[in-house]
Every structure is written in structure tokens, then in C-alpha cells.
């Protein structure tokens, strides 16, 4: 599976707008601006793990495709998540209260492209394999 591996940050579009829209506090937005994220994706049978590291913040989620699981956002909010596969794309729904974020991860050439949509705001973060 092309998504598996360690991915290093390359660039981001509309990330500041996305963080504002989703209520990320200014101090954590500052951490995001100063630190380039690393994402590690691994698969063991039906079990997947996505580990995102931003500065000293680590979000680590282990899940099975199609099964709801509990997670916590980088700002500490409890989330109900479901990950599905759409062809080669991994689509994650993160719900908190009445809000929903959709994260789509796919590989295009040698890049992992992660889009995060909340309401009318969509941010795109690009990574290259480490």
C-alpha cells in the first residue's frame, strides 16, 4: 500500500485558515507554524496506525478500516472517527459534537497529499517519503 511509510512535511495551503476555523488556540497554531509535521503510517493485517508528530505534540491513532474508534485531536478534543478506503484514498471522518472534519490522504507521484475539510475551509498538506 502506497500510504505506508514515514512522511516529511513539504508544504501547506490554507492551514492557518483551517486551524482558525476548527478553533485551534493561538499558542498551538504558533507550534504548527514553527514545526514541520512528520506522519508515520503503518499497517499490520487489518490494523492501521497513523502517528502525526508536530513539535512535542503526538497524535497516535490505531484503527480498523470501517470501524468507529475514539481518538483525541492535537488540541485535546475527544473525537469519534471512522476511516474508509475509496480506491487508493484513505478517508477519515472526525466528529466532535456537531462538527465534522474530513481528512483525505492519498499518494500522488512521490507525495502524500493530506486534505482536511471543515465546513467551507479546506487545507492541503503535502509530504514526501522520508
UniProtKB/TrEMBL annotation:
A UniProt-annotated Pfam family: Lipocalin
Keyword presence, Ribosomal protein: no
Protein origin, superkingdom: Eukaryota
Keyword Translocase: no
GO molecular function list: lipid binding
Domain Lipocalin/cytosolic fatty-acid binding: start-end pairs: 4-129
SUPFAM superfamilies associated with the record: Lipocalins (SSF50814)
Stored CDD domains: FABP
InterPro entries: Calycin, Fatty_acid-bd, ILBP, Lipocln_cytosolic_FA-bd_dom
Keywords noted in UniProt: Lipid-binding
Protein family membership: Belongs to the calycin superfamily. Fatty-acid binding protein (FABP) family.
PANTHER family: FATTY ACID BINDING PROTEIN
Protein name as it appears in the record: Lipocalin/cytosolic fatty-acid binding domain-containing protein
Amino acid at each position: 500500500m502506497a500510504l505506508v511509510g514515514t512522511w516529511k512535511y513539504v508544504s501547506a495551503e490554507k492551514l492557518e485558515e483551517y486551524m482558525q476555523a476548527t478553533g485551534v488556540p493561538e499558542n498551538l497554531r504558533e507550534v504548527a507554524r514553527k514545526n514541520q509535521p512528520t506522519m508515520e503510517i503503518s499497517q499490520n493485517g487489518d490494523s492501521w496506525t497513523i502517528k502525526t508528530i508536530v513539535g512535542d505534540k503526538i497524535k497516535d491513532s490505531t484503527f480498523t478500516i470501517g470501524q468507529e474508534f475514539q481518538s483525541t485531536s492535537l488540541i485535546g478534543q475527544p473525537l469519534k472517527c471512522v476511516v474508509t478506503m475509496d480506491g487508493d484514498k484513505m478517508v477519515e471522518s472526525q466528529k466532535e459534537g456537531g462538527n465534522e472534519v474530513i481528512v483525505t490522504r492519498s499518494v500522488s507521484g512521490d507525495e502524500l497529499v493530506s486534505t482536511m475539510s471543515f465546513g467551507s475551509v479546506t487545507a492541503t498538506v503535502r509530504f514526501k517519503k522520508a
